Amino acid sequence: MSHRFGELWTVQIGDRDEVRLIVSGDFYHTLYGDNALTAHVEAADMAHALTAFVVDVGEGRAAMVDRISTVAAVRLKSKVGDLADDQLAAVRGMIATIFGTAG
After folding, report:
1. Which residues contact 84 (CB under 8 A, 6 or more apart)?
2. pLDDT digits over 83-92, tens only?
3. Which of 28, 36, 69, 81 has CB atoms 3.0–4.6 Å from 8's, for a disulfide?
4. Neighbours of 28 (CB within 10 A)
5. What is the Cα 2 distance to its own chain's centre?
6. Residue ranges per structural domain of the chain
7. String of DSSP letters for the chain
8. Burial 40-59, CB ≥16 within 10 A → b, else e
9. How far is Cα of residue 77 from the mean position of the Cα atoms in its chain?
10. What is the distance between the alpha carbons of residues 27 and 24, in angstroms, rounded to a whole number?
11. Sign for the pseudo-dihedral over CA of 7, 53, 59, 68
12. Which residues, at least 6 apart from 55, have a Cβ–Cβ distance to it below 8 Å?
């Protein structure tokens, strides 16, 4: 299964599916090829209330970039969208700020 930085996927977490933003891929990835790093996607008002490191992903939702977690790639069920170039730039900048990486 391939996934690229900036894609939105549904992810099976326990007995439910969640939408997550893929932050792994060419820019930022784990040492393990069977895992993907994802940012939690919540209702936009909730995300903005919890952290300053958010990017709107449409349909009233936003990804909280400082809440990145690792999931097994086999839990990625279906791609549901891509971020626009300006949103990708915002995510890269937030990751660089939070984790001290160069984008």
Report:
1. none
2. 999 999 999 9
3. 81
4. 18
5. 15
6. 7-99
7. ----TTEEEEEEETTEEEEEEE--SSSS--S-TTEEEEEEEEEHHHHHHH-S-EEEEETTEEEEEEEEEEEEGGGEEEEEEE--HHHHHHHHHHHHHHH----
8. bbbebeebeeebebbbebee
9. 14
10. 6
11. positive
12. 21, 62, 63, 65, 83, 87, 90, 91, 94
d(CA 102, CA 86): 17
Amino acid 43 reads A
The residue behind tokens 């932050």 is: 23
pLDDT on residue 48: 96
Beta bridge partners of 98: none
pLDDT value of residue 28: 61
Domain 7-99: give its CATH code: 2.30.30.110
Amino acid at position 88, single letter: L
- Give the type of residue at 8: L
